[in-house]
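Annex B. Sample input.
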Amino acid sequence: MSLAQLLWKENTDLAHASLHHPFVRGLQAGTLPRQNFQSYIAQDAYFLEAFARAYALALARCPDLQGLRDFFELLSGVLEELRLHEGYAASWGVELVGMSPAQATLAYIDFLLAMAALKSVGETCAAMTPCMRLYAFLGQSLAVTPLADGHPYVDWIRTYSSADFEVLASRLEGLLDRYADDRLAIRTAYRRAMQLELAFFEAQLPEI
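Annex B, continued. Sample output.
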């Protein structure tokens, strides 16, 4: 079992807590109120920008050429996701300019950028991998159930259940396996990121 597989297995409690969270269940059923999804889109855009910056910091500190290529391509992927996110936000009537990050978003961003700026590349991978693997897990899990015609969140589910997104998640897991070793700091960073993911979903529910 690789380190990435081991860490995921050790944190499946938080993965399933996210899967069964009312926000995610609302996405699956199509019953999540529009205003809650709009809030999520705005906060996620803010987070994705920080995620891109964390990739850039990891790229700058990467010790080998293959890592430079891998982080560059992952950074390009999240920048493309941000571009698509802008169009997605517009279609949902979400104004991204001048938005304010919620406390849960700030907590996650502060953790992520601190890891990327101050810790090893391996620890940075441990802090970033949960986001990618969790979203692939959620997307693939939700896609198992057939979606009704006109489902409002079908694009979200299709994005994160796609083979393309699975490739990105697996690639980051490969970097985690390459640059991290099995020690307390790595395990702590991974679990903290999983906790922050769950808190991010929780923060989108104040009006439900």
